From TrEMBL:
One of its GO terms (molecular function) is CCA tRNA nucleotidyltransferase activity. It is an enzyme of class 2 (transferase). It comes from Rhodococcus oryzae. The lineage of its organism: Bacteria, Bacillati, Actinomycetota, Actinomycetes, Mycobacteriales. This is CCA tRNA nucleotidyltransferase. Residues 268-434 form the HD/PDEase domain.
Length: 482
């Protein structure tokens, strides 16, 4: 008797675990399978749902394919789903919700592409195999037939399980055909590397290198969505490396690979690019809950201003003066081009702008005024700024690293002590606009704004003042303005 190979054992174990996972969804799968069977139609769980079930990471989104047409699917779901909607009906997809499960059911498709956009001309297919071969990667082209009694029948005509066992992303058809049909699949490849920890098949890697320019056909909004999924992945560093190695990053966010040209001023890293990846990983390690999109983008982009501010110093060193100012502007420009929200642009830009300020703290020489300004300028971003500054310590000198962390500990302790005495989260003048107008005898207008700003600066410098002190200072200032 021939002993099973390790891969065969692992395959059997993964399929057994996946089957157990799906049995846990019997309250959804069994009635759904019964309804489709009663209507004379086939139903298959497919795509990322099967892949994630095999990997033990299935969420609450379930994808199905069927030979039933959309209007037939709607009729089958009627009276069973909690609600359903047809926003994807042009692509053959009906969506529904049942309990906490989000369901998408798409009619078998073969599709045809015009080579200009990524939107296919939807052509309904007649078989599961036709539907699977049009999918992006073989690991997403496995299916499980759901029987009338909820039974499961795993099918894998394109070798998706082999690819999954090998940790490889390959395309069902030739990658050149797949990426020409939909160039976004190239960026999805990098995203799946980040999410799954897989590697690209050599032919997929080469096809992306050859076709990277095709990503220009994709809208900024679609690119942004994939970039966010990539940077939120468990293996974000690997995904970013794939983008840079294949040339995709040069097309969608060229500031990242451009950092490869610059050596950091301490010569402790291969280049600023590698330093930035280290900072990103250390920021990820500091997360205390769900992945933090703002923190991760700030960590990755915090030094993108260095290439444009590099200066060779007389003694042979390198400096990057004001790279945080230049970098913040670059961040805002790139993120606007990628159609990020104003809040996202402002948050990431502000973190990049502030990431170096701590290095003026020295041995704790900051005045309380400087501490207040640090907290005020960070605002609600302060917890993220704490993480970013700590992550930015990448020196290999253990003594220096420990000293930097201890110094930041001291700053945080000072912030906490001052916060016990005053509301650092909401530093405002000691007199409001109405009080200013009444005291100075002036109407609403620019002069009130100037007076308000004076009092705000005074508050930052000296901390809370009594109303009498604030009024005396304001009157003295006003007299100087006349």
């Amino acid at each position: 008797m021939v002993s099973p190979t390790p891969d065969a054992d692992r395959r059997a174990r993964l399929l057994k675990d996946a089957s157990a996972t799906l049995r846990g969804l019997a309250d959804v799968l069994t009635p759904l399978g019964a309804r489709f069977a009663a209507a004379g139609h086939e139903l298959y769980l497919v795509g990322g749902s099967v892949r994630d079930a095999v990997l033990g990471r299935l969420g609450t989104d379930l994808d199905f394919t069927t030979d039933a047409r959309p209007e037939q699917v709607q009729a089958i779901l009627k009276g069973w789903a909690d609600n359903q909607w047809d926003t994807g009906i042009a692509f053959g997809t009906i969506s529904a919700a049942k309990g906490d499960q989000q369901i998408e059911i798409t009619t078998f498709r073969t599709d045809a592409y015009d080579g200009v956009t990524r939107n296919p001309e939807v052509v309904y297919g007649t078989s599961l195999e036709e539907d699977l071969v049009r999918r992006d990667f073989t690991v997403n082209a496995m299916a499980v037939r759901i029987g009338a009694d909820g039974s499961q029948d795993f099918t894998d005509p394109l070798g998706g399980m082999d690819a999954l066992l090998d940790g490889v992303l390959d395309t069902p058809a030739a990658p050149e055909i797949s990426f020409n049909d939909d160039p976004l699949r190239m960026l999805r490849a990098a995203r799946f590397v980040s999410q799954l920890g897989f590697a690209l098949a050599p032919r997929v890697h080469q096809a992306i290198v050859d076709m990277a320019g095709q990503i220009d056909r994709i809208t900024a909004e679609r690119v942004r969505a994939e970039l966010d999924k990539l940077i939120l992945g468990e293996f974000a560093i690997d995904g970013i490396n794939v983008m840079c190695e294949t040339g995709l990053a040069d097309r969608v966010i060229p500031e990242i690979p451009k950092m490869k040209l610059e050596i950091d001023e301490h010569h402790q890293h291969k280049d600023v690019y590698q330093h930035s990846l280290t900072v990103l990983q250390q920021a990820i390690d500091l997360e205390d809950g769900d992945p933090d999109l703002v923190l991760r983008w700030a960590a990755l982009l915090h030094d993108i201003g260095k290439p444009d501010t590099k200066r060779n110093e007389p003694a042979g060193g390198v400096s990057f003066h004001h790279h945080e100012v230049v970098g913040a502007k670059m961040v805002r420009k790139r993120m606007r081009a990628l159609k990020y929200s104003k809040q996202m642009v402002d948050d990431v830009g502000q973190l990049v702008f502030l990431h170096l300020r701590f290095h003026g703290y020295g041995e704790g020489q900051w005045t309380d005024s400087a501490v207040r300004r640090y907290v005020t300028d960070a605002g609600e971003l302060l917890p993220r700024l704490h993480k970013l500054v700590r992550a930015d310590c990448t020196t290999r000198n253990k003594r220096r690293a420990a000293k930097l962390q201890a110094t930041y500990d001291d700053l945080e302790q000072r912030i906490a002590r001052i916060a016990e005495q005053e509301d650092l989260g909401r530093v405002r003048p000691d007199l409001d606009g109405n009080a200013i107008m009444k005291l100075l005898g002036i109407p609403a207008g620019p002069e009130v704004g100037k007076a308000w700003t004076f009092l705000k600066e005074l508050r930052l410098d000296r901390g809370p003042l009594s109303p009498e002190e604030a009024e005396a200072e304001l009157l003295a200032w006003w007299a100087q303005q006349q």
